[in-house]
Amino acid sequence: MYFKYLRYLAFALGGLCTVVAAGALFLYATFDGARLAAELSHFAKQRHQRSLRLEGPLELSMFPRLMLHVPRGSLSGRAGEGELLAFERAALGVRLMPLLTHRVVVDRVELDGLRVALLRDRDGKLNVADLLDPPAADNGKGVEPLAFAAASLAVRNGALTWNDEATGRALALSEFELTSGRLAALAEGYAELSGRLTQASPGTDARFTLEASYRLGPEGKPAQLDGVRVVLRGQLAGQPDAELGASIPRLSLAAEGLLADSAEATFKQAGQQLRARLAGLKAGAGVWAAERLSTELDLKTAFGRLAGSLAGGASWREEGRLLDLGGHTGELALTPEAASPVRKIAVRGDGRIDFARGSGVGKIELTHELGHLQGSWSLPRLAPLALGVDVDVESFDLDRQMANGKAQKNRKGEAAAADDAAPVDLSGLRGLDIDGVIRFGSLKAGGLKLDKLRVPLAVHDGRLVSTGQTATLYGGAFEGSLSLAADGNKVVWRAYLQNADAAALGRELFGTAPFAGTTNIFVDLSSAGATRGQLRADMAGLARVRLRGGTLQGFDLLAALKEWRPAIQARQAAARRPGGGETSALGELTASFTIERGVARSTDLKAQGGPFAIAGGGSVDLAGRRLDLLSRVSLLVPPAGTDAALLAGLRGVALPVRVRGPFGQAEWRLEPGAQLATSPAPARPVLPVQPRPAPKPAAKPVAKPATKPAAAPEPSAEGGE
Predict the structure, then answer these.
(1) How confident is the model at residue 101 (pLDDT cuts 50, 70, 90)?
(2) Strand partners, 267
């Protein structure tokens, strides 16, 4: 009995196969490709008011499977306007039985040279909206000649353009390849898309890949994407050699829009990294919102490595293309150099970015162990990115931030090797476009404390320019300008200080106060180098100094003359170390310096108005923090009292005195016969020997005038230029 049923089943299957084969042969023999092409064209015209043009009849092949081959063709826009899509060749896998009733049910699609032009008009309507609408009831007007239940889709060498007339945005996908699994109700599969993305504004030209698994719902019901991954590499938003990656574990295409529990995007470029995470993402009807946007950054800036994270809410409105970033808080870490300790910065802020206008505004507040900052920011231009800042800082210790303040205070004339080797890298200026102003209540930088400092900023084309700086510095008025250039790591600094406290200034710069009084200083310096030591060694320019009511700190010239008197009479050298509480009145002191390779040289150092007349010059090694000055020192007014007679014989005598050694530890030395670079004619012969008659005055040495740029101001005794 069992074998009997098997025999019946075999006969049935054989009969069915025979019928199918006969149907296939009949279809192949009677297939009318021209008629089917005409029906498809007629359907496109009647149902969608579009023109379908095919350059020939459809062809049917039976092996290795049943395929319908479509020649080159195109489909117009609605009402025949323009071209929506075109293709070079199409091959459609079709089902046999519907073909017998002149219907085409597609279960496989292969397209070569596909071109699609998508458009959204000024009213927000898509040019494919009618094709996406569900079909209306047939009402007895006939059966649709084309239906899809594709088991796979393959597109090769495709191109797609998107033009949004409402926003003026346009982009293009070219050279793209698309493959997918089954596309039908309740189907599951995997899709992959790759190609090239180009966009004029912001400038983009990148290769991309997109892949995801999908699960389709019933007809007209939501779908779901799993494991969505997108990668773009190339020029992105004007940034060359960039990479943008995004991943979404699960994305639901629901009736109310797109829903995702989480999403993550990462941007990398030139060693910089920015990562954003979205939680509770909802999108629909032109609006999306995230319950939480977390941003992680690792950026190389002109001031060091900036890394950390921020978190807060975020929302997007397609109408107006507005991005709102509300209530973001987080912590950043700034590392100026590898050896520096990491400094933590607490951040609070919010903002709004208007992509339609290409601009943005917001507020920011930074709390640091070394200072507090609050102000506003603006983005006057998004592509390429431009930033505007208006910031107030209560106080900031840059020396401490750079882990250099302690070394600078404790040098006491000795070079700090670690500080000399500290790197200086201005490459972080490249790619920045910043304008604005920063105001400091107080700033500690380079050993100096500036109060009420105003710093205008302009950063463009890898160069920072700050002109019109003003501040109060140790009781004086400061004006300055600064230029930093990434090309060559160049620094240019120009500053003028009026009526400052010379003693306070010296203590901060040198760890000691060589002079007391009121000083005017003008400097015009430039340098280049990869380390702080190289910057000091390459320093070049000029400087001028004027000291009023001056007092020499740490050395008593009257005591030195008394001590040196026997050596003076014997034409012998003598030396004396500075003393702790000693002082010498100088009156007014002036000097100009030319600076080359970190060494400042002067030939016109003068002091007058006190009990002494001093004239000479020498060099100051700014990199090595050493000085070598040689001057003629003359006693003009002998002191009253018991020392008057002792020093009366030295009145008007020009004594060659050299000051040589590290800052704060220099030795004072009497050097008979030493020659000065320049000096006025002495009133008396140098180093007379009594009781011999006074010899004739020595000949004047030829003075070489100090060079100076015509633009350099001349500090005045009254404090003006």
Answers:
(1) low
(2) 244, 274
The last residue of one of the domains, among 318, 351, 382, is 318
Alpha carbon distance 634, 559 (integer Å): 14
DSSP assignment letter at 702: P
Closest CA to 211 of 265, 236, 247: 247
pLDDT of residue 382: 73
The average pLDDT across 11-40 equals 55
Of 98, 91, 144, 135, which Cα lies nearest the Cα of 113? 91
Report DSSP state, residue 80. Answer: G
Q: By percentage, how much of the chain surpasses pLDDT 70? A: 77
Looking at residue 495, what is its pLDDT? 93
In sequence order, which residues have a C-beta less than 8 Å from that of residue 193 and are 6 or more positions away? 176, 177, 178, 208, 209, 210, 211
- From 318, 351, 376, the end of a domain falls on 318
The answer to whether the CB of 89 falls within 8 A of the CB of 133 is no
Going by pLDDT thresholds of 50, 70 and 90, the confidence category of residue 562 is confident
Q: Does some domain include residue 460?
A: no
Question: pTM of this prediction?
Answer: 0.59
What pairs with residue 160 in β-bridges? Answer: 116, 173
Instruction: Give the C-alpha separation, 468 to 457, whole Å.
Output: 10
Q: Which has the closest alpha carbon to 603: 594, 699, 612?
A: 594
Q: What is the pLDDT of residue 690?
A: 36
**Could you give the residue ranges of the DSSP H alpha helices within 583-706?**
644-648
- Residues 511-527 have pLDDT tens digits of 778 889 999 999 999 99
pLDDT-derived band at 96, boundaries 50, 70, 90: low
Assess if residue 661 is contained within a domain.
yes
In the structure, how many helices (H) and strands (E) does the chain have? Answer: 11, 38
Beta bridge partners of 109: 92, 153
pLDDT over 80 at 608, yes or no: yes
Location of structure tokens 């006491």? 412
Query: Is 207 part of a structural domain of the chain?
Result: yes
Residue 160 corresponds to which tokens in the numbers above? 């797609």
Contact indicator for 329, 350 with CB cutoff of 8 Å: no
Per the structure, the count of domains in the chain is 2
Note down the domain range covering 565.
542-721
- How far apart (Å, rounded) are the C-alpha atoms in residues 591 and 515? 14
Q: Is 366 within a domain?
A: no
Q: Tell me what percent of the chain is helix, strand and coil, each rounded to the nearest 5.
A: 15, 55, 30
